[in-house]
Design goal:
Layout: E1 4-8, E2 15-16, H1 20-33, H2 49-59, H3 66-86, E3 90-91, H4 95-102, E4 107-111, H5 116-126, E5 136-137, H6 145-155, E6 161-166, H7 169-177, E7 181-185, H8 192-197, E8 202-204, H9 211-217
Parallel strand pairs: 1-4, 1-6, 4-5, 6-7, 7-8
Antiparallel strand pairs: 2-3
Helix pairs in contact: 1-3, 3-5, 6-7
Length: 219
């Protein structure tokens, strides 16, 4: 049977993690670069960890330093996990029943702006890691979400059918750039009108209203 994949974004799509990631970023930046920063202006919606770090370094006039950037991403998972032990991520309504249903018929992968280690910390803390096989595209592969999606398809051995679920225009663009069916979920910062205007193939108000998607997936 030809392989079929549903690739999912994480933050704003499956779950949200109030303050945990933002706080971890700021704390690790202070530790590695010796600069305390205000993270309140950073918009993580549709962003990637790699590009957020690059933005912070530009703002603080920190020159490129491969060793310290590598150290930053080595330390980030530890800080994130510690934060999530205190403030666990919140899974959006309908996500678990959705994953239970589709995982019986489709393989599940990821296309996420998180580095891989942070992605699986979030999924593990949310009780969702068991649904995903580790295949995907992550921020430590490339800071460009379109390229991350291309890598995910390559690692999945170019499945015959593939869907990309996300909550931002960046997710829609990545699906379109790679010939994937784009499914936008109105869990994040963007409303239905915006996501429809960006050209999503299918827009869901939530995973509790996923009948149209179930039909498209034939499950």
């Amino acid at each position: 049977m030809p392989s079929r994949y549903i690739f999912c974004d994480i933050d704003g799509t499956l779950l949200y993690a109030p303050r945990a990631g933002r706080s971890a970023f700021g704390d690790v930046f202070a530790e590695v670069f010796g600069i305390s920063i205000d993270m309140s202006h950073i918009n993580f919606a549709g962003a990637t960890d790699t590009r957020v770090l690059q933005q912070l370094m530009r703002e603080q006039n920190v020159p490129h330093d491969a060793a310290r950037e590598q150290l930053f991403f080595e330390r980030l998972p530890e800080f994130l996990d510690r934060n999530m032990a205190t403030i666990p991520p919140v899974v959006f309504p309908g996500v678990v029943p959705f994953l239970n249903r589709v995982s019986k018929h489709w393989k599940l992968g990821l296309v996420t702006g998180n580095i891989k280690a942070c992605a699986f910390i979030k999924l593990t803390r949310a009780g969702l890691a068991q649904y995903f096989d580790g295949i995907g595209g992550f921020s430590d592969d490339d800071g460009d979400r379109n390229k991350m999606a291309a890598l995910a398809l390559e690692r999945a051995d170019h499945p015959e059918r593939s869907f990309l679920l996300g909550d931002t225009p960046s997710d829609i663009a990545a699906a379109r750039a790679n010939g994937m069916v784009s499914v936008a979920v109105c869990n994040g910062q963007f409303d239905r009108a915006t996501l429809e205007g960006e050209g999503a193939d299918l827009v869901l108000d939530s995973f509790e209203a996923a009948d149209e998607l179930f039909q498209a997936l034939d499950v």
